[in-house]
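ESCALATION

Customer reports they have been waiting on this structure for their group meeting. Please prioritize. Original submission:
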Amino acid sequence: MTTSVSDTRDARAELSPDEFRALGHRLVDQIAGFLADLPSRPVAPNTTPRAMRALIGDGVPVPATGSDPGALLDEAAELLFAHSTFNGHPRFFGYITSSASPIGALADMLAAAVNPNCGAWSLSPIATEIERQSIRWIAELIGYTPDCGGILVSGGNMANMVCLIAAIRARAGWDVRARGVAAGKPLVAYASSEVHTWLQKGLDLCGLGTDAMRAIPVDASLAMDVVALRRVIAEDRAAGREPAVLVGTAGSVGTGAIDPLPALAQLCRDEGIWFHVDGAYGAPAAVLVDAPPAFRAFADADSVAVDPHKWLYAPIEAGCALVRDPEHLRHAFSFHPPYFRFDGAAEDPPTNFYELGPQNSRGFRALKVWLTIRQIGRDGYRRMIADDIALARELYELAESHDDLEALTHGLSIATFRYVPSDLRDGRDAAGDAHVNALNTEILSALQGEGEVYLSNAILGGRFALRACVVNFRTTSADLRRVVEATVRVGRRIDAAMRPNVVSGRR
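Update from on-call: job pushed to the front of the queue and completed.
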């Protein structure tokens, strides 16, 4: 008699229900302990790539035999808890990555266990409907039309790029998918000089090239200069180029600056240009009762990018592309190979997300977004986002009132400042300015290495600034005071070490 594979199958990837239950309970206990201890841990490890590689056996070949899953999970937990940069730490202010909701972490575990492929409805019936509802709720929270098209992607870069691709297909005037972007007039995209680098990357990947971007000057508030924009558009038209896409920024990554979105929306209507809003960071602030007035123009945009793993507190990865006309996404991305048979009944057509974005196989990103929104609710977001903004304002005011700090900007939940020794506060010459920039560059590196607080930087008119972004429901005023204390302490130490090697800067 022939022995069947089922009699001899070695399924060592499997865990019995009792094994899974025991390992899962132990891991959840470890994670709970980690979250409880998080404020007392360093924000970031002071380490090197070589040290990290040594921990996991750099150069070791693929294991010939398997290992005990419990020991592996314990090892992985210890590695991550001891050697990570914690963006959920209350003193992580570096980049716009929020403290992730714990329910979102549990959602990721649940999503991975079921493992639906959210490319086609029939492969993910309830997951697809949860994603559709999550997209509609995100649109409602920011004041966008809830019957828009949309898709969840990896983050802000991809959300913006999905919208850019839809815009190019819609505004080209020829079949870009068949003939390519070079088959007609050169297409041009416009954005402020403060725009995130996703636009350069997107224009590169779309084949337009980075020369297709027009970086429009900004005013004193770092918002786009509309007069300059109109002039550049007119010059492009006169030269035979086609203005295709205008990007308005709703919260720049450097300072939280907001472009004059209503004026940009009107200009796009007048000129026949696709109006896209990069709201990856700032758009959720539209939920506030006293939201920036410019955010009312979201309703007039052809597309908006929102990043739920920023200010909606979802775990990474979660970005959302919203497009007013759902068909623009389908026209940009839909293909029907003969091996796909995912059409439903005409009277009740399914949503197949592979037709609305660049991926075919797609993970269940939506569950963590959906559950986080349901746990927090609109009122919860209003309170939490308002608190983040108030904390950033408080940090700005703390810097403004300190003799050794210079407050520079406050926008949304971002504050920028820098360490300036009191004897260099006034009357610096070029050497003094260079010293202050170099000093703050070294301060940033030292702060990130020491792990007490984690800041990033912005460049403002040639000035190297320390930058703090608050998108963290764990942060309190006490954490802001730690930022000031650490910056001043480190600044004084580094200034004393650097000063003998530079001109004092006094005139």
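Sent to customer with the following note: The longest strand covers residues 242-249.
Escalation resolved.
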